[in-house]
């Protein structure tokens, strides 16, 4: 082994000293640099607990005044017009054809919204396939459809499909937070009479529905609803119009419940199709859509890490199953509350503890409702929650969390970001409330396009079936979609996965007592 000479050692030592000196000088320069204090434009301000505009809003949909001016960047990406003063109701807008038969946030966003719709079409091939197959026959020619659903790129594809099949459509939103403003603008530019924008007030919400229904020289003969608000409005305010409706298609558990109530009371004078309980809605939209979108909504609003968090999910139906599967996969400790022993048993066998909410509420980090019921989370539960507990709803209705009970003088509301409120108790405890108790995924994030294609195709077929059904096939009652149609919807989506069905032989079909072409399940199968 060679030993370095003394001269070489001195040169290396000198170089090391120079290097150390340079590092010291650099660090000294950094530490002497003046520190800049970050200044926020506005401090957090306390939000008004009750609406101050004339005309008190109903408690069922009451929202803080400031909430109507906010929007989720997830659901509406380029809503720069949101800062403009005034409501769209006060603005006169026309599309490129000179029509003003719409009310949206900003018609100038139409080009961007059209791109959003085109992107959605790429993953809704089955609905586009139905459009191409049936547009020559125009099975909805003469149909005048009034709709009240979420207005997103995916529902825009459905609306434009209905128009391509011959229908005239007028549309409003079923949720004051879920409208994608640029998509509403694109629909208006295409000639659809759409009345919706993100952040509507209570009064705006009902005004938009009324504008869809009440138009001189135009009377709806079909209803497509999500939540039952449109059906309720027509039934109460326009009874003569309601009697002439040929069919109602409803896709939410809340709306279906309302329809069954009307039917039981003998007040449902038109046939209605319960899409919510169709297999292609329950087992796909409710399950797979929520499995993916629950995490998206929670992450975008709270940046929460789920590993080790204690979460209680109220309800273990298809929505609850989807939510629990996603949360469990990320390491959350999940508890379930249930009223149905069958669903409770399923939860137990899936590895979840079934509890009463009162038993665990103090330890929970996240509380999620997905029952479709009312007052699932009460003020008593909210008072007992730990500091920083996150509370949100994945059911359609905004009644599951008793938000109204939080609008009291002793509690302070603080808006920390879009759709995120901190409710502050006198002792300093904060509860994080998302979307003011409304549907989390569509209010605070987006939902998977493909699974919505399944639901949209089911809705389109239900409308076609009710509109073209011979007199007497459907009476004044609530019906499930025939299984043959459920299976047809599923078959339209299989090519996306390059899936190939096995066909029964004649002998096998005879043995099972089935038609070779289906349906393969009885009508009561869910």
Automatic annotation (TrEMBL):
Residues 1-20, 49-100 are annotated as: Disordered. GO terms for cellular component: cytosol. Substrate binds at residues 152, 226, 251, 281, 285. Residues 286-447 form the S-adenosyl-L-homocysteine hydrolase NAD binding domain. SUPFAM superfamilies: Formate/glycerate dehydrogenase catalytic domain-like, NAD(P)-binding Rossmann-fold domains. Residues 10-20 have a biased composition (Basic and acidic residues). Residues 60-79 have a biased composition (Low complexity). GO terms for molecular function: adenosylhomocysteinase activity. One of its GO terms (biological process) is S-adenosylmethionine cycle. Binds 1 NAD(+) per subunit. Its EC number is 3.13.2.1. Pfam families: AdoHcyase, AdoHcyase_NAD. It catalyses: S-adenosyl-L-homocysteine + H2O = L-homocysteine + adenosine. Pathway: Amino-acid biosynthesis; L-homocysteine biosynthesis; L-homocysteine from S-adenosyl-L-homocysteine: step 1/1. NAD(+) binds at residues 317-322, 338, 441. Keywords: Hydrolase, NAD, One-carbon metabolism. The keyword Hydrolase applies. Its cofactor is NAD(+). Gene3D superfamilies: Adenosylhomocysteinase-like, NAD(P)-binding Rossmann-like Domain. PROSITE patterns: ADOHCYASE_1, ADOHCYASE_2. Belongs to the adenosylhomocysteinase family. This is Adenosylhomocysteinase.
């Amino acid at each position: 082994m060679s030993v370095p000479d003394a001269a070489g050692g001195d040169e290396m030592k000198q170089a090391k000293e120079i290097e150390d000196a340079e590092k010291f000088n650099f660090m000294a320069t950094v530490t002497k640099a003046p520190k800049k204090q970050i200044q926020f434009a506005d401090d957090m301000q306390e939000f008004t607990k009750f609406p101050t505009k004339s005309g008190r809003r109903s408690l069922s949909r009451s929202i803080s005044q400031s909430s109507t001016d906010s929007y989720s960047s997830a659901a509406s990406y380029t809503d720069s017009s949101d800062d403009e003063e005034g409501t769209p109701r006060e603005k006169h807008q026309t599309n490129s054809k000179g029509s003003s038969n719409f009310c949206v946030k900003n018609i100038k966003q139409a080009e961007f919204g059209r791109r959003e719709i085109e992107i959605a079409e790429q993953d809704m091939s089955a609905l586009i396939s139905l459009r191409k197959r049936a547009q020559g026959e125009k099975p909805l020619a003469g149909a005048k459809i009034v709709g009240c659903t979420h207005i997103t790129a995916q529902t825009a594809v459905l609306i434009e499909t209905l128009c391509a099949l011959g229908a005239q459509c007028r549309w409003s939103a079923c949720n004051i937070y879920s409208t994608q403003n640029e998509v509403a603008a694109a629909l208006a530019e295409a000639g659809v009479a759409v009345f919706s924008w993100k952040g509507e007030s209570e009064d705006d919400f009902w005004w938009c529905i009324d504008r869809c229904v009440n138009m001189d020289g135009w009377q709806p003969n079909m209803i497509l609803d999500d939540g039952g608000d449109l059906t309720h409005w027509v039934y109460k305010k326009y009874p003569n119009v309601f009697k002439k409706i040929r069919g109602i298609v409803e896709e939410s558990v809340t709306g279906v419940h309302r329809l069954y109530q009307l039917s039981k009371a003998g007040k449902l004078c038109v046939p209605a199709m319960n899409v919510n309980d169709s297999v292609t809605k329950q087992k796909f939209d409710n399950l797979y859509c929520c499995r993916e979108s629950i995490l998206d909504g929670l992450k975008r609003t709270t940046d929460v890490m789920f590993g080790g968090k204690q979460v209680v999910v109220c309800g273990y139906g298809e929505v609850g199953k989807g939510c629990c599967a996603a949360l469990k996969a990320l390491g959350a400790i999940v508890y379930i509350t249930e009223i149905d022993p069958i669903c409770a048993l399923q939860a137990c066998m899936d590895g979840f503890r079934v509890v009463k909410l009162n038993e665990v509420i103090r330890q929970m980090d996240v509380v999620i409702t997905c029952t479709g019921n009312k007052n699932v989370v009460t003020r008593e539960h909210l008072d007992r929650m730990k500091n920083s507990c996150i509370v949100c709803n994945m059911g359609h209705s905004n009644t599951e969390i008793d938000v109204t009970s939080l609008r009291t003088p002793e509690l302070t509301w603080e808006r920390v970001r879009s759709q995120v409120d901190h409710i502050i108790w006198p002792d300093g405890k904060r509860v994080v409330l998302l979307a003011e108790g409304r549907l989390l995924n569509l209010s605070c994030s987006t939902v998977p396009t493909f699974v919505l294609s399944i639901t949209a195709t089911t809705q389109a077929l239900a409308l076609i079936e009710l509109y073209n059904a011979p007199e007497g096939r459907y009476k004044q009652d609530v019906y499930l979609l025939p299984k043959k149609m459920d299976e047809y919807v599923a078959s339209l989506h299989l090519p996306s996965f390059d899936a190939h069905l096995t066909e029964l032989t004649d002998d096998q079909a005879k043995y099972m007592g089935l038609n070779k072409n289906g349906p393969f399940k009885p009508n009561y199968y869910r």
